[in-house]
Specification:
Number of domains: 1
Helix content: 40-55%
Radius of gyration: 16 Å
Order of helices and strands: EHHEEEHEEHEHHH
CATH superfamily: Peptidyl-tRNA hydrolase
Number of strands: 7
Number of helices: 7
Structural class: alpha/beta
Oligomer: single chain
Largest sheet: 7 strands, mixed
Strand order of the largest sheet: 2-3-4-1-5-7-6
Length: 204
């Protein structure tokens, strides 16, 4: 089984905020797969499991099941949901992909890595604590650095600006494509296709 975990915070007050871009990416992939038809349906259709909301099924051509998971523990305790799902289904580290926001990347830019530092992200910190390693794949979606004098913890809990949202919508489409590439091929293939594409667009 492949496991894709979108990070975010539960509750209507956090919908559309920068810290919840992982939830939005999971929604986009679920729509691409035909599991839901519009935003907001994931929460209605998913089942409560592993301290989160989970949806799973077969993916054409994948040859194994896929689970999409949104932890409902709040960001700082994301590791509990990830560890629970991995342990139950015996999912190896390389078959897990965590999707999250990144303040160090320009808004809408994608960066895929097979492992590494949390970069100060509390969700990744807790997953590393729960798993005992930082060697699991992750897809970071840029949300821009906070403006001067705006604390990072406040910035990530605010909605995207209208200008940022223009960059986020195509980024969500790309994230779904990148996740499909990772599932069907490998993390290296996804990195080569999407990290390079992002770098090329930046130069142009």
């Amino acid at each position: 089984m492949k496991l894709i975990v979108g990070l975010g915070n539960p509750g209507k007050q956090y919908v559309g905020t920068r810290h919840n871009i992982g939830f939005e990416a999971v929604d986009m992939l679920a729509r691409r797969l035909g599991w839901i038809s519009k935003p907001g349906e994931f929460e209605k259709s998913a089942r409560a499991n592993f301290d989160g909301l989970a949806m799973d099924g077969s993916v054409l051509g994948l040859g194994e099941k896929l689970m999409l998971l949104k932890p409902m523990t709040y960001m700082n305790l994301s590791g509990k949901a990830v560890q629970g799902a991995m342990a139950f289904y015996r999912v190896p580290l390389n078959d897990v992909m965590v999707v999250l926001d990144d303040r160090a990347l320009p808004c809408g830019k994608l960066r895929i890595r097979p492992g590494g530092s949390s970069g100060g992200h509390n969700g990744l910190k807790d997953i590393e604590r729960a798993l005992g390693t930082d060697q699991y794949p992750r897809l970071r979606i840029g949300i821009d650095a906070p403006p001067q004098f705006v604390p990072g913890k406040d910035y990530v809990l605010q909605p995207f600006s209208a200008e940022q949202r223009k960059a986020i919508e195509p980024a969500l489409e790309k994230s779904a494509q990148a996740l499909m590439t990772w599932m069907e091929k490998s993390v290296v293939a996804a990195m080569n296709a999407f990290n390079a594409r992002e770098d090329k667009e930046k130069k142009e």
